[in-house]
Structures are given as structure tokens and as C-alpha cells.
């Protein structure tokens, strides 16, 4: 098998392996030997054929007229040659097409390889970025988050303690007390608005009564229908203020009680309880701050290790990128040579295809002239008669004899190269599993030394290709566990002493006993707040009472109607007109100055009432219930903190430490999972590898193999083509059709004697130009052959007893007549 000695591949095969090679490549060797033998024999055959033609044989000379079955022979042989030419046409077209495809693939190969290398480099750079992000950037974010948690550890534990012990109710009590100032201001505003509304309502009631009495007197004095209509429609006699503002709730007592509580420092006393609880948070945070630097240093050591791990992996990828850059330069160098020399191969292929096309064109023209052309008659022949067809066919034969040997050698070389490259390069590259040629590549290309110069391992090209086809991660493909085993990240806690530092953190978190978060004085004042009467205010009455219009008649609309009525009064009622106009103006004034401001104050009062009602409930039915409930919750929380608080704080410290460690564990577990399953899946490398195979094997080697198969196909068909062309050429050269069996027999006999007698050309002369009337000599028995008379120069010229005939038997041809002029000569019967 192949082995590599000092970097040079050498053959070291055993006898059994040689037998396998013979079995594997036996067919190729057999075809090579046959092709070379054919290339060697064909020139000898051509020389022999040429000599044979020169001697007048092998179709060089033939009878001038057809034999009995020559027409059938021509038809059959032409059909066979047409079929063969059609098959050759397929081969010629394939030769041209594959040669063109091969040239295109060769030109595109450097670009395709370069694109694949750039894709691989892009994949490696993206993988580098992924490694850097997960090991460096993400851990830096985790470190910042962990340090923030350490800094907020006291607050986190205190919040959990407050939630569990219900001490969070103290915050709600503080919010209630802190909102007393706002509640007091709202009550003041409501009290002021209520007072103003009552005052304005009294004033409005007085003026409305005066306008009503005046209008009743004036409208009664007016006798028009409009006056009566206004009096009826607006029910002036019922006009009054319909809202009873005296029924609005009185907030004076509640306002007074809240004011007194605030003067009694209820806010500060409740806030002191909240400060006492927050002191727990400060104490815990102060104790934790002593351990934070130790924990942070342990976390930083993990970050430094992850950063160094990322650096080592990226350096490995950088080494691969350097090799890729070197390969790109080699591709550019190869492109120069391909651009320089590939046209020569292309033109050689084009020349070979052109030779095949020339032969095909000779066959085509030969068949066309032979089938469609006229018979040759010696003078005035058409350029495309059957004789031209015969010459075209023989031209094809001579081209075949002259060039087939060279083409056969070139085809054999192409075949050997194509098959060897297919089996030795493309097939192993397409199927790298358990392949000897790929094993040789692994021995030549020591990629493990490139990746791990100080610690070589079993990483090789076939291993990389197989795993990339499976879309494995870069960690598995390059066996990065040789640099660092990511599974050992799970042991970080012991390696970096994280557990001990977290235990120290837990011990620092504790709770002092005798916690007071709500004094008895604060409880008493909160109870007074609950009994302040604020919860007794019926806020819904503001909505119900102020929902109606202030007056039962719209004063503005009534004013407009009065003005319209006064304008329509007849002359003579000036006093009524003036009275109506004065009352209308008064109504407009009262509406703008009293009704409209009172409506706005009513809306404001309703809004304040609804808002304040929701504000003092604190998610309960009333403020009193909320305060009593919260005071009970805070009292229970204080008892819990003094009794079970220290133990629970230790439990919270343990949970906090475990949650802290869990974040680090989750991150490192994520690193392990991503390294083994996600980061750097090398499917893109597999795609680039397959694209390179397509560019090399499918776009170059496949057309290359198709080219030699097409040429070989044609060369093999040239052998029967020679025979068919020689046969058809001899048949196409005959100038006359079949004359009949008797004349043919005589002519055959004379043709044999003429071929032996050097003076036979004189005996074959048919007679002088001024011959006799041969029709007188035609016997009655042969009258049926008269339709052959214009071809009678090939008729039987046997002598008879007529002395006149004998005197002209050896007479030279006339100089004034062409030698091949047709005469009608018959044999006279006795």
C-alpha cells in the first residue's frame, strides 16, 4: 500500500494487494492495451489499403455499370452508414460540449476554490467570535451581575425576610402615614369647595326667585301666543335651584382629627419603625461587605481562566486562518498558470473535435451526394454527383487512416488520466470513510502538527471531513479537549475555593434579637387614625347629589327664548319687551357668573371625592379596616423576627449563597453545552468542501471523462465506417445501371481479358463514328432489350461473319468524336 517515507509517498504492496489492484484496474489496463494496439495496427492497415488501392484493387477500379443487386447494396449500406454517422454525430457534439464545459470548469476552478476557502475562513472567524462572546463577553456580564448581587445582598435578604414575616405591611403603614399630608390637603379642598357651593347656591336661589316672579308677571301681561308657549314649555312657575348642597357630607371632623394626629408626630413614629427594620438590611450588608472582595476575587479568577481558554482556542483558529491565507496565495499562483496553459489544452480538444467533425462532414457530404446526386458520366458532371460522394467518403477514409492513431493515443492518455484521477482523487474525496487514498493524504498532510505542534494527536483530514459532514462542533472536530476539557469546568468550585468564600458569606449574614419595628405609641396613634372618621365619610353622596343640574331650567336657553319672544312682540307693548329683555340678560349673567362656576366646582369636588375614596382604602373596604389589618400584620412580623428571625435569616443566607453559586454553575454548564453541541458547527466547512469537489470533479473531471468517452466512441465507430465508405465509394463510382444478365456476363468476360491484354482498349472500341444502322442487325429474339440501347457501349461486341464489321473491329477511334460516345450496337442473328 501507499506509505510516506521522509515526506515522499512510496508504493509498498504485497502480492495480495497487487491482486486487488489488478482486479480493480484490470479493465482500464485492458482498454489501454487494446487502444494502443489499435493505434499501432491502424497505420499498417492504412498503408496496406493504400497499396491495394494503387494496385487497382480494394475498390479502386470497378465495373462501369451496376451489378444485379448493387442498388439494394447501396440502399442498405447507405442506411447503415447514416445510422453510424448519426451515432458519430452524437459523439462529435458531446466532444465539443464536454471540451467547452471542461474549459469553463477549469477557468472557474480558482475562483470556486477561493470562494470555498473564504467561506471556511468566514466560518472560523464567526466561530472565533462565538468563543470570545461566550467565554469572555458573557462571563464579564455575569461577573458584573454577580458583583451587583453581592452589593445588594443585604437588601435582597431583607426584602425576602420582610415578605416572609409580613413585615412588608410596615411599608404599607408608612405609605398610609406618609400620605396623610396629601389626604389632609384633599379634605381641605373638599371642605372649601363645599362651603363655596353652599354660599353660591343660596345666592343663586335668591336671584332665581326674583327672576321667576318678574317673568310670571310679565308673561301674564303678554297676550301673545309666544309668551304663553314659553310660560308653558319652560314651566317658569317651577324654576328653582334643584341641588341641595346642604346634604353634601361634612369633612370638618375628619380634617380636624387628621390635623391633630399629624401634630402628634404620627408620621415620625411610624417612620422610626420602618427605619428600625431597614437597620437590619444595613447590618446584613455591612457584614457581607467584608466578604465581597474575597468572593469577587474568586469570580475574577474564573474569568481570567475563561479568557485564557478563549485566547488559546482563538490562537488555534488563527493558525488555521494563516494556512488558509497561504492556500489562497497558492490558488492565485495556480490561477496564473491555468490562465496561461489551459487554452492550449482547450485548443487541442477543439482540434480533436474538429477532426471528428471533418470526418463527419465528409461522411455527410458523401452520403448526400451519393444518395441525391446523379451518376457520373465523364463530361458536364454536377459537382454533387455520386462520384463526388464517393470521393467524399474516401476522403473520410484517408483522414481516419492518417489521424486515428494519434487520436487513439490521445484518447488512451485521457482515459488513463481520467479514470485514475476519478478513482484516486474524486472517489476518495467524496467518500473519506475507510479509504486508502485518503489515508495517504492524512500521512502527507500532517494537520495535527499544524494544529498541535507541541502535542500532536490523531486529528487528520479524513477525521475532520467526516465530522464536518455530520455537522459536529469545532470542539469535537479539532479535538480541542487536547487543549482543555470543558467538562472539567464543573470542578471550578473546589479549584477556585468558591465554596469556602460562600460559606464565609453565609456566616456573616445574621439577625440581632429584640427588634422593635412598631412602638405602642405608634400603634395607639394608628388606632386613632382609624377612628378619625375619615372612613365614615360617604363619598358616594358627592356623586349622587352633584349628578343633577344645578337648576331645573337651563337659564341660558330660557334667556335666548325670551329674547326671541321680545323681538316678535307687536308695537304698543314696549314695557313688556323691556321687561323680557332685562330678565333675559339677568338669566345670562346668573348662568355665567353663578351656574357655570358652580358646575365646575361640582365636577372638581366629585373627582376629589372619588380619588380620595380609593386612596384611603389601601386594597381594603375602608381605611380603618386597612390600618387595623396592617397593624396586626406588623405586630406578628415583630414577634416572628424576635423569635424565629435569626434562624430564618440563616436559611435565607444559605439560599442566597446557593443561588449565587447556581448562577455560576448555570453559566459554566452553558459553556460546556455550547462547546459540545452548538459553537462552531462545521456544516459550512462541509458545504465548502462539497463545493470544491463539484468545482473540481463535477465541472472538470466529469467533462474530461465525457470528452475521451465521446472521442473514443467516434474512433471505435470509425472502423465500420471505413468498410462502409469503401463499399459505398465503389458503388457510387458506377456510371450505368444494371444492363441485363447477358450483357453483364459478356462484359465481365471481356473485362477480364482486357485487364490482362495491354491492347484491350482498342478491342473495347464500339465502332467508328459513321457506323452502320445497327438496328438492321438486331435479331427478333432480342427486340426486348431495345430499352438498353443508349447504354450499348457496354453491350456484347462479339465479332460475326460480316466482313464490314471485321474491317472496323480494330479501327482507331475518330479524332472528331469523343472516345466514350454512345453507339447502338447489336448482334445480328443468322
From TrEMBL:
The chain crosses the membrane at residues 28-55, 75-98, 346-371, 392-421, 707-726. Residues 799-830 are annotated as: Disordered. InterPro entries: Prominin. Pfam families: Prominin. It is found in: Membrane. Residues 806-820 have a biased composition (Basic and acidic residues). GO terms for cellular component: membrane. Its main location: membrane. Keywords: Glycoprotein, Membrane, Transmembrane, Transmembrane helix. It is a multi-pass membrane protein. Belongs to the prominin family. This is Prominin-like protein. It comes from Frieseomelitta varia. The lineage of its organism: Eukaryota, Metazoa, Ecdysozoa, Arthropoda, Hexapoda.
Amino acid at each position: 500500500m501507499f506509505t510516506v517515507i521522509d515526506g515522499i509517498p512510496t508504493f509498498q504492496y504485497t502480492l495480495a494487494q497487487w491482486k486487488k489492484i489488478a482486479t480493480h484496474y484490470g479493465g482500464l489496463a485492458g482498454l489501454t492495451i487494446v487502444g494502443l494496439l489499435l493505434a499501432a495496427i491502424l497505420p499498417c492497415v492504412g498503408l496496406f489499403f493504400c497499396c491495394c488501392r494503387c494496385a487497382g484493387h480494394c475498390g479502386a477500379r470497378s465495373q462501369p455499370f451496376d451489378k444485379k443487386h448493387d442498388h439494394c447494396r447501396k440502399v442498405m449500406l447507405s442506411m447503415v452508414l447514416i445510422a453510424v454517422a448519426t451515432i458519430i454525430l452524437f459523439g462529435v457534439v458531446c466532444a465539443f460540449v464536454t471540451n467547452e464545459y471542461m474549459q469553463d470548469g477549469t477557468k472557474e476552478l480558482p475562483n470556486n476554490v477561493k470562494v470555498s476557502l473564504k467561506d471556511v475562513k468566514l466560518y472560523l472567524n464567526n466561530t472565533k467570535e462565538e468563543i470570545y462572546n461566550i467565554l469572555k463577553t458573557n462571563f464579564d456580564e455575569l461577573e458584573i451581575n454577580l458583583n451587583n448581587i453581592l452589593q445588594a445582598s443585604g437588601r435582597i435578604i431583607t426584602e425576602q425576610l420582610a415578605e416572609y414575616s409580613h413585615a412588608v405591611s410596615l411599608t404599607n403603614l408608612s405609605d398610609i402615614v406618609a400620605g396623610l399630608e396629601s389626604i389632609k390637603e384633599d379634605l381641605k379642598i373638599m371642605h372649601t369647595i363645599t362651603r363655596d357651593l353652599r354660599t353660591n347656591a343660596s345666592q343663586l336661589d335668591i336671584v332665581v326667585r326674583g327672576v321667576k316672579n318678574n317673568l310670571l308677571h310679565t308673561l301674564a301681561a303678554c297676550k301673545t301666543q309666544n309668551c304663553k308657549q314659553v310660560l308653558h314649555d319652560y314651566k317658569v312657575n317651577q324654576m328653582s335651584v334643584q341641588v341641595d348642597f346642604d346634604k353634601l357630607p361634612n369633612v370638618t371632623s375628619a380634617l380636624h382629627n387628621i390635623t391633630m394626629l399629624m401634630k402628634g408626630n404620627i408620621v415620625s413614629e411610624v417612620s422610626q419603625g420602618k427605619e428600625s427594620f431597614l437597620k437590619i438590611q444595613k447590618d446584613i450588608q455591612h457584614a457581607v461587605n467584608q466578604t465581597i472582595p474575597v468572593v469577587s476575587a474568586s469570580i475574577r479568577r474564573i474569568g481570567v481562566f475563561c479568557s485564557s481558554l478563549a485566547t488559546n482556542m482563538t490562537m488555534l483558529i488563527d493558525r488555521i486562518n494563516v494556512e488558509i491565507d497561504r492556500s489562497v496565495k497558492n490558488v492565485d499562483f495556480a490561477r496564473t498558470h491555468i490562465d496561461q496553459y489551459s487554452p492550449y489544452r482547450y485548443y487541442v480538444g477543439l482540434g480533436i473535435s474538429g477532426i471528428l467533425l471533418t470526418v463527419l462532414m465528409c461522411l455527410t457530404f458523401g452520403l448526400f451526394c451519393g444518395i441525391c446526386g446523379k451518376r457520373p458520366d465523364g463530361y458536364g458532371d454536377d459537382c454533387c454527383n455520386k462520384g463526388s460522394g464517393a470521393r467524399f467518403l474516401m476522403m473520410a477514409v484517408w483522414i481516419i487512416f492518417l489521424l486515428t492513431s494519434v487520436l487513439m493515443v490521445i484518447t488512451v492518455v485521457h482515459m488513463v488520466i481520467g479514470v485514475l484521477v476519478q478513482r484516486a482523487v474524486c472517489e476518495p474525496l467524496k467518500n473519506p470513510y475507510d479509504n486508502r487514498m485518503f489515508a495517504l493524504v492524512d500521512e502527507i498532510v500532517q494537520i495535527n502538527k499544524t494544529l498541535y505542534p507541541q502535542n500532536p494527536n490523531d486529528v487528520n483530514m479524513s477525521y475532520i471531513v467526516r465530522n464536518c459532514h455530520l455537522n459536529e462542533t469545532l470542539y469535537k472536530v479539532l479535538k480541542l479537549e487536547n487543549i482543555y476539557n470543558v467538562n472539567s469546568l464543573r470542578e471550578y468550585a473546589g479549584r477556585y475555593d468558591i465554596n469556602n468564600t460562600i460559606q464565609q458569606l453565609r456566616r456573616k449574614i445574621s439577625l440581632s434579637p429584640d427588634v422593635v419595628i412598631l412602638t405602642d405609641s405608634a400603634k395607639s396613634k394608628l388606632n386613632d387614625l382609624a377612628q378619625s372618621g375619615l372612613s365614615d365619610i360617604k363619598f358616594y353622596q358627592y356623586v349622587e347629589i352633584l349628578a343633577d343640574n344645578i337648576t331645573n331650567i337651563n337659564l341660558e336657553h330660557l334667556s335666548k327664548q325670551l329674547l326671541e319672544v321680545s323681538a316678535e312682540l307687536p308695537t304698543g307693548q314696549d314695557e313688556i319687551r323691556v321687561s323680557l329683555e332685562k330678565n333675559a340678560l339677568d338669566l345670562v349673567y346668573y348662568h355665567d357668573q353663578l351656574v357655570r362656576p358652580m358646575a365646575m366646582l361640582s365636577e372638581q369636588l366629585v373627582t376629589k371625592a372619588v380619588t380620595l375614596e380609593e386612596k384611603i382604602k389601601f386594597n381594603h373596604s375602608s381605611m380603618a379596616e386597612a390600618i387595623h389589618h396592617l397593624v396586626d400584620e406588623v405586630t406578628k412580623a415583630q414577634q416572628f423576627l424576635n423569635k424565629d428571625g435569626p434562624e430564618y435569616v440563616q436559611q435565607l443566607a444559605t439560599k442566597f449563597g446557593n443561588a449565587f453559586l447556581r448562577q455560576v454553575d448555570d453559566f459554566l454548564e452553558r459553556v460546556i453545552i455550547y462547546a459540545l453541541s452548538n459553537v462552531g458547527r462545521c456544516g459550512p466547512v462541509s458545504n465548502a468542501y462539497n463545493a470544491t469537489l463539484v468545482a473540481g470533479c463535477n465541472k472538470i473531471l466529469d467533462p474530461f471523462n465525457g470528452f475521451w468517452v465521446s472521442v473514443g466512441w467516434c474512433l471505435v465507430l470509425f472502423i465500420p465506417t471505413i468498410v462502409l465508405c469503401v463499399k459505398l465509394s465503389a458503388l457510387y463510382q458506377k456510371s450505368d445501371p444494371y444492363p441485363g444478365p447477358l450483357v453483364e456476363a459478356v462484359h465481365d468476360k471481356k473485362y477480364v481479358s482486357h485487364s490482362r491484354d495491354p491492347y484491350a482498349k482498342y478491342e473495347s472500341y464500339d465502332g467508328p463514328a459513321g457506323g452502320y444502322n445497327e438496328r438492321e442487325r438486331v435479331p427478333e429474339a432480342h427486340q426486348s432489350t431495345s430499352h438498353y440501347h443508349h447504354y450499348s457501349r457496354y453491350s456484347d461486341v462479339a465479332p460475326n461473319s460480316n466482313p464490314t464489321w471485321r474491317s472496323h473491329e480494330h479501327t482507331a477511334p475518330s479524332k472528331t468524336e469523343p472516345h466514350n460516345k454512345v453507339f447502338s450496337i447489336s448482334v445480328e442473328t443468322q
